[in-house]
Every structure is written in C-alpha cells, then in structure tokens.
Design a protein that fits this description.
By secondary structure, this protein is α+β, with helices and mostly antiparallel strands. It has one domain: Glutaredoxin (3-Layer(aba) Sandwich). The chain contains three helices and four strands. A four-stranded mixed β-sheet has the order 2-1-3-4. A hairpin with a 2-residue loop joins strand 3 and strand 4. Helix 1 packs across helix 3. The mean pLDDT is about 95.
Length: about 90
C-alpha cells in the first residue's frame, strides 16, 4: 500500500469534550478498513467543530449537517471513496 494513500482526519471540539466520540469513530473505521486506511488522525479543535476528512476532502461536517455522523453512515462514506465495490455487510443494510 502506498504510504500516503488514504489519510482520514477527525477534527473534534475539545471544549465540547468530543474526544471520546471521535476516538470511537476512529476505532470503528480502523477496524473496518484496516487494510485500506494508512492513517487515522484525531485533531483537537474548537468552536463546536466535528469534521471528518479523507485525503483532504470533507466527508462529514457537523456544522453543515447539524448532527453527528452515524457509524454506519461514515463507513459507507469512506467505503464509497476508497473501496466502492466492497460489501460492508450489516452496515449496508
């Protein structure tokens, strides 16, 4: 795998105490895409931010959507970018 192939970043608000949510989603993604993700980074932010980017492209923004992503939804968004033909099993139903 190319070392700079797929880098996912979760920027979370530290004042809102969203580290646990960010780390749980990171764990879910690393478990599902262990062969496909080269890096998953957690980045402290502020101002109520909770943004998820893949290779610099915004996949999900709490500010834009007005909510947090569901694990299933986030897995589908990542899959659609890095492995569009992959079956996610129960996450696709």
């Amino acid at each position: 795998m190319d070392s700079d192939k797929n880098k996912l970043k979760i920027v979370y608000c530290t004042r809102c105490r969203w580290l646990f949510r960010a780390s749980w989603l990171a764990q879910e993604l690393l478990t599902t895409f262990e062969e496909d993700l080269d890096e998953v980074a957690l980045s402290p932010g502020s101002g109520g931010t909770f943004d998820i980017t893949l290779n610099g492209k915004v996949l999900f923004s709490r500010a834009k959507e007005g909510r947090f992503p569901e694990s299933k939804e986030l897995k589908q968004l990542v899959r659609d970018q890095i492995a569009p033909n992959r079956d996610l099993g129960h996450s696709d139903r």
